[in-house]
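Postdoc handover notes: sequence design on the structure in folder B. Input tokens:
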């Protein structure tokens, strides 16, 4: 059976010419940020990748077809669409079979990027082990995907709404390299500090590209998690964001929010509580990750 997969003209051309490509996810557009900042940010991120000499490929499922690279009109439509599925590994095939529209999380974006031969992917923050996972078993499928699919994912760490020590433990168990850039500490999305040392550190995009290739040569399944701290001027220091995170987590518990709804609920709650500062920080860190991902992608070609 042939897969319903379509490349945008830009991405098709880049593939034909062997230009460096950077994959981008779409859940951040539909479930991570409000309109119109979501679409503006998606465009700015694409521009940043182009400015660094690589080609962006935003990935989403539109009416039952995997799109690798979205046109301006498609991006605009997705940014305002209602009833968009949030797709992880488990949901991809069902979304395609039903001809529906879905946004790809980190896990689903990795799968589609790999299908398209794209080795590098920039996002905001990966999903991870949620607080209280010992009771809820809520662990993002992003972690498993990193151990299966050979894509280097550039993120600003895992979101501080998660249990970061447990997230690191699971990644270690799964054999996923967690590489900090420019500092020894694991960054925590809105803040540069997490209080946790990252297992690995590499500051040079060329070395990160080389270790990506060496994993392939070693026959190792899975990708790399590159954790790139938010720029100093954009960060919300840990002491400031953590009380807000605690409040949001309490509200989620009281309202009985579970599973896929948890992350979007907490993000929008933080947006209100910080009067938009959490969104400004989110935008700044995604742009920063796009820049680094483009540099790694250039080293890979
Ligand atoms: N990064 C952001 N905002 C987001 C996400 C990442 O800046 O909304 C999304 C990603 O798609 C990631 C998902 O895969 O959050 C994690 O969701 P969950 O915790 O339900 O696995």
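Designed sequence:
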């Amino acid at each position: 059976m042939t897969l319903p997969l379509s490349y945008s003209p830009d991405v098709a051309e880049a593939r034909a010419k062997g230009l460096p490509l950077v994959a981008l996810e779409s859940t951040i557009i539909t479930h991570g940020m409000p309109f119109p900042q979501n679409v503006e940010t998606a465009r700015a991120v694409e521009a940043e990748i182009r400015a660094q000499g690589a080609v962006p490929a935003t990935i989403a499922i539109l009416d039952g077809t995997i799109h690798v690279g979205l046109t301006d009109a498609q991006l605009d439509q997705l940014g305002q669409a209602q009833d968009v599925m949030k797709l992880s590994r488990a949901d991809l095939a069902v979304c395609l079979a039903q001809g529906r529209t879905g946004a790809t999380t980190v896990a689903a974006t990795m799968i589609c990027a790999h299908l398209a031969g794209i080795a590098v992917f920039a996002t905001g923050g990966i999903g991870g082990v949620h607080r209280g996972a010992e009771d809820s078993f809520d662990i993002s499928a992003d972690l498993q995907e990193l151990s299966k699919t050979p894509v280097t994912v550039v993120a600003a760490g895992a979101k501080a709404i998660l249990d970061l020590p447990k997230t690191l433990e699971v990644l270690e168990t799964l054999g996923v390299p967690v590489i900090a850039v420019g500092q020894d500490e694991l960054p925590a999305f809105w803040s540069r500090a997490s209080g946790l040392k990252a297992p690995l550190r590499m500051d040079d995009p060329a070395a990160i590209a080389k270790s990506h290739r060496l994993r392939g040569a070693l026959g190792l399944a899975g990708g790399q998690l590159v954790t790139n701290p938010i720029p100093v001027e954009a960060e919300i220091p840990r002491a400031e964001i953590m009380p807000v995170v605690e409040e949001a987590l309490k509200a989620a518990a009281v309202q009985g929010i579970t599973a896929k709804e948890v992350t979007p609920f907490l993000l929008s709650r933080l947006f209100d509580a910080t009067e938009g500062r959490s969104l400004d920080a989110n935008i700044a860190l995604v742009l920063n990750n796009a820049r680094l991902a483009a540099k790694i992608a250039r080293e890979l070609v």
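Context for whoever picks this up: The chain has a mean pLDDT of 97. Don't rerun without checking with the PI first.
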